[in-house]
């Protein structure tokens, strides 16, 4: 809608860049172009505003397939007014000089024209297509047929309209038919889901079995390695015991050899000591024997001399000496008792000697 301002019987129009303005005064065209801005008098001006931007037209219509099933088609047509002068001549795009609003509904007329044309071509395609094929390939077929039909429609260029694009959003059957068609698909999907579940469970069971087998193999390998470890430890223990035994044997042999050497040394030392002691004893015995022999010889010589001396002395002297020696060797006598008989005998002897 154009922006119009009133000033003392004059009007000022300011158009948008997407609106093509045509200003006539009588039969004379004063202004023609998009985005114009000018002053005019309302009593003598005839102004048309034609939109030249791309516009979207959504449409929904029903069709029947070759197997007599109703389907709903949702489509969108993008169009633009490529020739504003032709469009303004064929449709009423005039605006009120005071408000700037369209006096008629030209866009609704364009929408009706496009909808009926597109619907005609879509019905032509679907009427020769069964429902199953329409649900599978109907969207593409309908879009292509509608685009070709609109492009070849002579009324659209004659009205100044250019179709930019055609899109078919959906093609759906009636709710009961759709539910009936969904049932096998849902069952198939459910079967696929069940199959996937079973396969997933089978895979899980297989993985659990593989894990259990791996764990069992790991345990077997661990047990085997533990057995090897025990054997190795036993071998190491036996080897260590053998080495200890060998070392003990070596130590025992060394100790025995040392003991034998010590015993031999002790025996040798004892023998040497015994020999030395024997030698000393022999020497001492020889010395003692030599001394005893010498003493005996001296005693013999002294005895012989004593005997020679006493042999030259008379008996009385010898008796006196014997008495003297006897007196020297007798213990101390405190008192002596001489009987008359002893004294008489002694005196007699003494008188006889005299």
What's the arrangement of secondary structure elements?
Blueprint: E1 3-7, E2 10-14, E3 19-25, E4 28-34, E5 37-41, E6 46-51, E7 55-64, E8 70-81, H1 84-90, H2 106-126, H3 131-151, H4 155-158, E9 161-173, H5 175-312, H6 315-329, H7 340-353
Antiparallel strand pairs: 1-2, 2-5, 3-4, 3-6, 7-8, 8-9
Helix pairs in contact: 2-3
- The CA-CA distance between the termini, in Å, is 218 Å
- Taken from the alpha-carbon principal axes, the silhouette is rod-shaped
- Give the spatial strand order of the biggest sheet: 1-2-5
Mean pLDDT, as a whole number? 82
Listing every helix as H and every strand as E from the N terminus to the C terminus, the arrangement reads EEEEEEEEHHHHEHHH
How much strand content do the residues show?
15-25%
Account of the protein in words:
By secondary structure, the protein is α+β, with helices and mostly antiparallel strands. 62% of the residues lie in helices and 20% in strands. It is built from seven helices and nine strands. It has helices at 84-90, 106-126, 131-151, 155-158, 175-312, 315-329, 340-353; strands at 3-7, 10-14, 19-25, 28-34, 37-41, 46-51, 55-64, 70-81, 161-173. The strands form three sheets. It has a three-stranded antiparallel beta sheet with strand order 1-2-5, with no helix packed on it. A three-stranded antiparallel beta sheet has the order 4-3-6, covered by helices on one side. It has a three-stranded antiparallel beta sheet with strand order 7-8-9. Helix 2 (106-126) crosses helix 3 (131-151).
